[in-house]
């Protein structure tokens, strides 16, 4: 499979990637190779990865606890201390092996350690393959606020190898599918139609096309001034819903994709009301979402907490929430203000 | 006084600076202006600063506790939470008003908040004026390891106003003088001679020339590949000594400049032994240092702890300590390995 060239680094696919990784290590003569895992990727992905890593450099494994709840500065401090104690220096390499928590947190940890060491991302979930693999966003949460602390920083290389998907639960695969739907409705409707129409998906092709789209978008607008904002479609409300479930002790967490899928249905509804986005397309998106994900019911009494969390969205300026909405499939409008009543209405629409 | 143009931002001097700051705020239409202070700069510098800030934007003050001991991630978390609670968004501006702890930590906090907001540095100590004002280094300590976590990130503007020096204790002024001596011996011997010969120093001129030198060095070598390493002269051993006193509960802390001054004497001695740096110049440097600073005696039983701390220096690669030494005044050699016995000998030389 082809390599995709991101702004300053390549995204390699499948087994051929590992040769490129070995070359990178050879050329840079790293002093130590740190591999960041969680208990899941240590058990399921590390055994698949390590036979592919041919190097005589010192290798050190650092394990953190899995889960969004651990994507915070306390975990970073633990990793920084571990790297320090294991003799990490400026010529160390950090390889992240895991889902979005590992790749986002690992990239941030590497970028701030002694003012920056090299890192390589190996996403192991569908979500992190299609979302976190390009774009240079690194970071951690601050309390319930997602990615509040972080940086734009690019890895030396990304490796996307489907073999790791065998280790991932079906619910996590579905979580990643939400981002593919997003690329479809905002940028390439073929991708959406393929998911809508096909029962037998070619996951390799979907991943490759998603990475290609994300890369095109990011290259055109690295600092999120305009086009890149389409990547936030479904995420403005979706993040608030995700945060709300994360901080509600009596509710089971939603996956990122489950929250974003709800966000996309709601934001399609807002688009229809504000921008004339065709109503049958709202129905299309809702039908696909409902067919893939277990239905969540957003309780009326929770709406105000969700709206409160919206106000902390990173993209807000002057306390004003900015949505990316759709005029049509593949045709977006940024910086849309949405009346609170319509946001509530959109959640009621999702519930129906 | 002239403005110095650093890589991507201006360094303004004296009262004229504030007009430039007002223009910056006007042009960027910031949503909120956060001012980071400690209890000392709140009391002594803030009253001098605030009448100069002409804006109708919302201003929020954030206070942290002074001292190197608070230059850590816990303090950053406190500031990030404060900015969040006060409604900070991506269009916020952070103004740092203080010494190196405030400017280094504040720059790091700003660069990581929501993946980066603008910041302006207003150094209020001699040390931070001549050292932290250009170069783009931001960061905090990890345990006793200085600046272990940080980034290269540039402010929008730096304001150097001598008026703040009136608020600073004489011991702190002396601390900054060590960096001026460093610029002298490594880059412009006139600066060293001025300090050596003159009892009546023109501090404005010394600051301006120091900022000019640091800027020349950084522009030529932003990522510390070669020339910029001269800025580490005296700092390799000096940082270890500083860290050692910081973590020793029964010893009074040294100021950064006091530790660096000792480091420079020791590294001049190493230079003489390894590179033939003239012995009378070692004496010159030692005489100037001893005339300015209270004499510290480094205890024999502490040498091994200091050597241990050396091994964690950020500039080390493969566990090897790298010194910048002098062939002569204004003539340096990077990446020098120094036998442990000679490092100890140099500390004994300083003690004599």
Automatic annotation (TrEMBL), chains A, B:
Gene3D superfamilies: 3.40.50.1970, Dehydroquinate synthase-like - alpha domain
GO cellular component: cytoplasm
Keyword Lipid metabolism: no
Limits of the 3-dehydroquinate synthase N-terminal domain: 62-174
Cofactor (UniProt): NAD(+); Zn(2+); Co(2+)
The protein's Enzyme Commission number: 4.2.3.4
Keyword presence, Cell membrane: no
A GO MF term: nucleotide binding
Alphabetical UniProt keywords: Cobalt, Lyase, Metal-binding, NAD, Nucleotide-binding, Zinc
InterPro entries: Dehydroquinate_synthase, DHQ_synth_AroB, DHQ_synth_fam, DHQS/DOIS_N, DHQS_C
Residue span, 3-dehydroquinate synthase C-terminal domain: 176-316
Single Gene Ontology BP annotation: aromatic amino acid family biosynthetic process
PANTHER family given in the database record: 3-DEHYDROQUINATE SYNTHASE (PTHR43622)
Function: Catalyzes the conversion of 3-deoxy-D-arabino-heptulosonate 7-phosphate (DAHP) to dehydroquinate (DHQ).
Protein name in the entry: 3-dehydroquinate synthase
């Amino acid at each position: 499979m082809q390599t995709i060239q991101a702004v300053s680094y390549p995204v390699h696919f499948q087994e051929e990637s590992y040769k490129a990784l070995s070359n990178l290590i050879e050329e840079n003569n790293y002093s130590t190779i740190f591999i960041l895992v969680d208990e899941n990727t240590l058990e399921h992905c590390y055994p698949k990865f390590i036979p592919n890593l041919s190097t005589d450099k010192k290798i050190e494994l650092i394990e953190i606890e899995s889960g969004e709840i651990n994507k915070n500065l306390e975990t970073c401090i633990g990793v920084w201390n571990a790297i320090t104690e294991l003799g990490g220096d400026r010529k160390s390499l950090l390889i992240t092996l895991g889902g979005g928590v590992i790749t986002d947190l690992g990239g941030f940890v590497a970028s701030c350690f002694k003012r920056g060491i090299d890192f390589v991302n190996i996403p192991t979930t569908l979500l992190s393959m299609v979302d976190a693999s390009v774009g240079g966003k690194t970071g951690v949460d601050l309390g319930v606020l997602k990615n509040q602390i972080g940086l734009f920083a690019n890895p030396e290389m990304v490796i996307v190898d489907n073999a790791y998907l065998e280790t991932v639960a079906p619910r996590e695969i579905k979580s990643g599918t939400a981002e593919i739907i997003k690329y479809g409705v905002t940028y390439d409707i073929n991708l959406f139609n393929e998911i809508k129409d096909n029962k037998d998906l070619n996951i390799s092709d979907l991943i490759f096309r998603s990475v290609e789209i994300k890369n095109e978008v990011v290259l055109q607008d690295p600092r999120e001034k305009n086009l890149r904002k389409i990547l936030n479609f479904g995420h403005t409300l979706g993040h608030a819903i995700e945060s709300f479930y994360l901080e509600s002790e009596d509710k089971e967490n939603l996956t990122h994709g489950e929250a974003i899928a709800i966000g996309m249905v709601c934001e399609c509804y807002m688009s229809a009301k504000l921008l004339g986005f065709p109503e049958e397309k709202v129905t299309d998106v809702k039908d696909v979402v409902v067919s893939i994900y277990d239905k969540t019911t957003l309780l009326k009494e929770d709406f105000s907490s969700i709206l409160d969390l919206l106000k902390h969205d990173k993209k807000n300026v002057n306390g004003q929430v900015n949505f990316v909405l759709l005029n049509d499939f593949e045709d977006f409008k940024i910086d849309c203000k949405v009346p609170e009543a319509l946001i509530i209405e959109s959640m009621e629409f999702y519930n129906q």
